[in-house]
Amino acid sequence: QEHLQESGPGLVKPSETLSLTCAVSGGSISTYYWTWIRQPPGRGLEWIGYIYYSGDTMYNPSLKSRVTISVDTSKNEVSLKLTSVTASDTAMYYCAKTRRNWFDTWGRGTLVTVSS
Amino acid sequence: EIVMTQSPATLSVSPGERATLSCRASQSVGNNLAWYQQKPGQAPRLLIFAASTRAPGFSPRFSGSGSGTEFTLTISSLQSEDFAVYYCQQYDGWQITFGQGTRLDIK
Question: For B76-96, how does the pLDDT look when each residue is reduced to its tens digit (9 = 90+)?
């Protein structure tokens, strides 16, 4: 059973770049798709995008111009970069193991606040 | 984009009773639908996939049904640990969308 752990700065200034990492343990990253999902405080879930270990990606069209998801198979890590952040990007960010486009294993999430 | 609409937004049910949660898709998603349970301070947890297949670890009290545009999550004989927020998610194609959630409260 894989274990996912998100990490990164909890505070990012407006207009800067949000960078998060998801460390995968207990299994190989080279098997499934890996997805980032976010949840603003008190609100619902938003799919950000996913990546396969080969590097194939798919992004939410509403975020596509600002998002990059990458994978480092040597470290068993998936990364998320979101540029030009604003207060509306404040959210809990989750990574999730993706099986046929449903998410069967989630990390605990990391809260990112965008504020000066 | 396929829009997922859940109803009601909040459902108040007494322990031991049955809860019925609805999820509607703006266009057909076949049976490409999942349900998640989220408790306060926790990540969502996969509950149902392929519209009706229960994920490991969940009681048979949980059942999913539907196809196309109309889906239902039924929880029979509610237990205290079932009170949470439930989200539906469609995965018909690679553009994934979630419903806004139904909060299941103790009556």
Answer: 999 999 999 999 999 987 789
